[in-house]
């Protein structure tokens, strides 16, 4: 962590496709401090997923830079793989490895990358599974799980690497409504433990309840940010007001 | 009654004719050994060409899909590494175009009469020619398997901190292999039967052996049908083995 407490710093981030025809991100500045829960909201196509995926360089920026723990990780000679280990990511479509059991999904990266002994990796993974209520599913394969269970496994799989920050890319958007709650509960408890989180979501209730800061994006820019109360109760930007009137 | 006698006679005659033909084609002069020796050559060529083909196929598929998946980051980083990958990709594409664009018999003859002129070992030439030929098809089979895996799998691996090759090895290839197994089996069957043209460069494999018997006895039915049945039996066994392997691989998912 930096002296000023910022864990991730985004400076002038732009992501263009087809030359400059499509501007997914158009000059984003953002600072995320350790322990913060930052929720990013906005209409589809506003660039919120692109921003999130840029944080661990799944999207390569056209311009601008991303500082993680004080280091510019968007610089082209940086070994990004070392930094990604410390940034857990959860996807909309879970992306569990279907050819491996739940426990193997979780222990693969710690064993291969952190050289953790098998027994230790398993023990740590089992502890996490227990916390999300899936200890009895350890030997099952992903195809045998429900959507909510899959996403809970995906979260603890990322946690197995003991990351400094967790990135969530619409983690509940692909779930049946009745399964959204169980995933959000896991995320809430994670936030309560002080995990730094960046969450792209359409769950306004979650944003209001858990976020320490809410960011509203549209057209590849951050149009407004602030505490959940400010954003939801006293929105200033007209675009944000229009958006909230549609989703709330 | 007379009718049944006639049918009986027919079968008796047919059987004694069959027996005479069988002895003429396989037993006299121990000509069954020709078949066995031919079969040996067919199996040797198929086996080693298969290994060579898989090795070439893996390398070419790796180059092509690496280039495809990392094109953006190559362009961004530039330099000698990116240029080298571009050149490799070009060579692989050229190989695929030439090999898939020309008949295997022609490739075999070019190899024997033009390229490897200082060897008389036809089996070796056949192994190399069929291996190089099969490699092109295997490469595209593997590549299609890699492409068939959802991009999210790749991102999940990378987001955990695996590099490109670790992601391939632990996450993509095990899944892709399962997908391509039936197609790969098909390619092996084709290869096995394609070796029947090795006679063009003087290799006596199964087909040529059958043909030589026919040339000696002037009787076509016995040797050619025998050859056909042997191919058929080999393909049936191979198919059954692959099906078993497939089932075992799939079990890990249930």
Describe, in short, the structure shown:
The complex is a heterodimer of chains A (248) and B (254). Chain A is built from nine helices and ten strands.
Strand content of chain A: 25-35%
Low-confidence stretches of chain A: none
**In percent, how helical is the residue content of chain A?**
25-40%
Pattern of helices and strands of chain B: HHHHHHHHHH
CATH architecture of the domain at 42-204 in chain B: Orthogonal Bundle
Average residue-wise pLDDT of chain B: 92
Q: What radius of gyration of chain B results from the CA coordinates?
A: 25 Å
Itemize the secondary structure elements and their pairings:
The complex is a heterodimer of chains A (248) and B (254).
Chain A: E1 6-17, E2 22-33, E3 37-41, H1 48-55, E4 63-68, E5 71-72, H2 80-84, E6 87-90, H3 102-113, H4 118-131, H5 147-159, E7 165-169, H6 177-192, E8 196-200, H7 204-210, E9 213-218, E10 221-226, H8 228-233, H9 238-247
Parallel strand pairs in A: 3-8, 3-9, 6-7, 7-8
Antiparallel strand pairs in A: 1-2, 1-4, 4-5, 9-10
Helix pairs in contact in A: 3-4, 3-5, 5-6
Chain B: H1 2-27, H2 32-69, H3 71-77, H4 79-101, H5 104-115, H6 122-148, H7 151-160, H8 164-194, H9 206-217, H10 221-251
Helix pairs in contact in B: 2-4, 2-6, 2-8, 2-9, 4-6, 5-6, 6-8, 7-8, 8-10, 9-10
Name its key features.
heterodimer; A: 248 residues; alpha/beta; six-stranded mixed beta sheet; four-stranded antiparallel beta sheet; 9 helices; 25% strand; B: 254 residues; mainly alpha; MetI-like fold; 85% helix
Describe it.
- The complex is a heterodimer of chains A (248) and B (254).
- With 248 residues, chain A is an alpha/beta fold.
- Chain A contains 9 helices and 10 strands.
- Chain A has helices at residues 48-55, 80-84, 102-113, 118-131, 147-159, 177-192, 204-210, 228-233, 238-247, and strands spanning 6-17, 22-33, 37-41, 63-68, 71-72, 87-90, 165-169, 196-200, 213-218, 221-226.
- Chain A has a 6-stranded mixed sheet with strand order 6-7-8-3-9-10, sandwiched between helices. In chain A, strands 2-1-4-5 form a 4-stranded antiparallel sheet, covered by helices on one side.
- The longest helix of chain A has 16 residues, at 177-192.
- Chain A is globular and about 50 Å long.
- The mean pLDDT of chain A is 94.
- The mean pLDDT of chain B is 92.
- In chain B, 30% of the residues are buried.
- With 254 residues, chain B is mainly α.
- Chain B has 10 helices and no strands.
- Chain B has a domain at 42-204: MetI-like (MetI-like fold, Orthogonal Bundle).
- Chain B starts with a helix and ends with a helix.
- Classes of the chains: A alpha/beta (248), B mainly alpha (254).
- Chain A binds chain B through residues 56, 58, 60, 76, 81-82, 84-85, 87-89, 91, 93, 95-99, 108-109, 112-113, 141, 143, 157-158, 161, and chain B through 72-73, 76-77, 150, 152-153, 155-156, 158-163, 166, 170-171, 174-175, 178, 252-254.
């Amino acid at each position: 962590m930096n002296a000023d407490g910022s864990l991730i710093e985004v400076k002038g981030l732009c992501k263009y496709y087809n030359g400059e025809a499509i501007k997914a991100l158009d000059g984003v500045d953002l600072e995320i401090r350790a322990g913060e829960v930052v929720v990013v909201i906005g209409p589809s196509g506003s660039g919120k997923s692109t921003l999130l995926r840029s944080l661990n360089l799944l999207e390569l920026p056209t311009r601008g830079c991303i500082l993680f723990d004080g280091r510019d990780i968007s610089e082209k000679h940086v070994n990004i793989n070392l930094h990604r280990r410390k940034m857990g990511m959860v996807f909309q479509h879970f992306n569990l490895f279907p050819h491996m059991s739940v426990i193997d999904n979780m222990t693969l990266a710690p064993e291969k990358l952190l050289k953790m002994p098998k027994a230790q990796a398993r023990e740590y993974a089992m502890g996490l599974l227990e916390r999300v209520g899936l200890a009895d599913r350890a030997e099952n394969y992903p195809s045998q799980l429900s959507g909510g269970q899959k996403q809970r496994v995906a979260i603890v799989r990322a946690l197995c690497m003991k990351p400094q920050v967790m990135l969530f890319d619409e983690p509940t958007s692909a779930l049946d409504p009745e399964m959204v709650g169980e995933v959000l509960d896991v995320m809430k408890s994670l936030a309560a433990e002080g995990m730094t989180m960046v969450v792209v979501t359409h769950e306004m209730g979650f944003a209001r309840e858990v976020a320490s800061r809410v960011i509203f994006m549209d057209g590849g820019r951050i149009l407004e940010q602030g505490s959940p109360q400010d954003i939801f109760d006293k929105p200033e930007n007209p675009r944000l007001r229009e958006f909230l009137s549609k989703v709330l | 009654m007379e009718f049944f006698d006639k049918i009986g006679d027919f079968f008796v005659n047919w059987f004694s004719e069959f027996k005479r033909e069988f002895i003429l084609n396989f037993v006299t002069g121990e000509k069954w050994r020709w078949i066995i020796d031919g079969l040996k050559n067919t199996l040797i060529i198929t086996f080693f060409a298969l290994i060579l083909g898989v090795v070439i196929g893996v390398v070419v598929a790796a180059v092509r899909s690496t280039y495809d998946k990392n094109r953006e980051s190559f362009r961004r980083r530039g330099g000698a590494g990116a240029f080298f990958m571009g050149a490799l990709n070009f060579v692989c594409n050229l190989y695929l175009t030439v090999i898939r664009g020309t008949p295997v018999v022609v490739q075999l003859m070019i190899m024997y009469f033009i390229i490897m002129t200082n060897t008389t070992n036809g089996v070796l030439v056949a192994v190399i020619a069929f291996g190089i030929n099969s490699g092109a098809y295997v490469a595209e089979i593997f590549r299609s398997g890699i492409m068939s895996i959802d991009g999210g799998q790749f991102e999940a691996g990378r987001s955990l901190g695996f590099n490109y090759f670790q992601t391939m090895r632990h996450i993509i290839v095990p899944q892709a292999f399962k997908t391509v197994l039936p197609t790969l089996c098909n390619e092996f069957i084709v290869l096995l039967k394609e070796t029947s043209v090795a006679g063009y460069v003087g290799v006596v494999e199964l087909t040529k052996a059958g043909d030589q018997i026919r040339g000696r006895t002037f009787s076509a039915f016995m040797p050619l049908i025998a050859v056909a049945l042997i191919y058929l039996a080999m393909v049936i066994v191979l198919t059954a083995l692959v099906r078993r392997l497939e089932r075992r691989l799939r079990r890990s998912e249930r």
